[in-house]
Write a structure and sequence with these properties.
The protein has 269 residues and is α/β, with parallel strands linked by helices. Helix content is 51%, strand content 10%. It contains 12 helices and 5 strands. α4 packs parallel to α9, α10 crosses α11 and α11 crosses α12. The chain is globular and about 65 Å long. The N and C termini lie far apart (65 Å).
Length: 269
Amino acid sequence: MLTTESSSNYHDLEKMSVQDILTSINNEDQTIPSAVQRSIPQIEALVEQIVPRMKKGGRLFYIGAGTSGRLGVVDASECPPTFGVPFDLVVGIIAGGDTAIRKAVENAEDDWNQAWIDLKPYQPTENDTLIGIAASGRTPYVIGGLNEAQNAGLLTGCVVCNDGSPVAKAAAFPVEVVVGPEFLTGSTRMKSGTAQKLVLNMISTAVMIRLGKVKGNKMVDMQLTNEKLVDRALRMIIDELNISPDEAESLLEEHGSVRGAIEAARKQG
């Protein structure tokens, strides 16, 4: 029996009060961080393999179906604005294509060959990494993609929520975060999805830090795409250089990024 399919620890959910429903969900959610913590050695091993490949020009690909695929797309799409990297450095691919981000595509996850077909336009190389995301650990779309990637010499990893799954066996560096039964039996968008999101945050953030995309504790390469981010950038420059807001604004306008502004000011100083 797959842990993700195990019966909920709660019964007669429809008879619960709203408070009981919310409290029970929250009680289950509090078990997730400890499950992720137990997987840190696996996450570390994967990150340590990804970084040198990306330093050689490699990319990071996520593949998944349903909730897992959407989580990969979200993490990938947040890397350019957060770290100032090209949009095609971290790529999320979901079974069924972009339509599946908003609307489920029937049977898309059952095609063993489609993931590699979806990856081929990117012309994957041996410096690239493919991470399969599948709560159950048995999604054919993900297993097939990992197998083909392994044959082509890519680094392979995965994020799953069952022990000893076929997806984990297909990946050279599996991450297995076993969170136990869902509050709503089998609804892996809940605890499993939260665990996967936490792990993806850890992977992409750790990788970007090791690639030099962070200075101190600040997102010095972030894209300045709205007023809030410009204000954040100005505060970073002010704090780092101990200068006035007007000076910070002038530096940012001239150099276009927090990193550029700070480095230019220090060279001048």
